[in-house]
Design brief:
mainly alpha, 97 residues, globular, single chain, 55% helix, three-stranded antiparallel sheet
Length: 97
């Protein structure tokens, strides 16, 4: 008699999160992305994906000087995520930055 030693495969991407090695890999990937954010600029679309605000709110923050940005030729805008994050944290009530 032989024992069946195969393990069942995880069901989909969400099931992989429960595996410790997969979770560590996902956290490491997230940390790598954060490191890359410190070195590069992101687009307005990417910034809107990261922040829970509307495009109009982002426009108001830009025009009021609440967040820093760089305007390239024409309409193209770039944001340095670390600088935006720091600016928003300074606006936080009770902030100590």
């Amino acid at each position: 008699m032989s024992k069946n030693t195969t393990q069942s495969e995880p069901l989909g991407e969400d099931a992989k999160i429960n595996e410790p090695n997969a979770l560590r890999a996902r956290i490491q990937t997230s940390n790598n992305e954060r490191q890359a954010d410190r070195e590069f600029f992101i687009t307005e679309t990417e910034l809107l994906r990261r922040l829970p605000v509307s495009r109009r709110t982002l426009f108001q923050w830009r025009t009021s000087g609440k967040i820093p940005f760089v305007r390239l030729s024409g309409r193209r805008l770039l944001f340095h995520w670390t600088s935006v994050e720091a600016a928003l944290l300074r606006q936080q009530k009770g902030a100590t930055l």
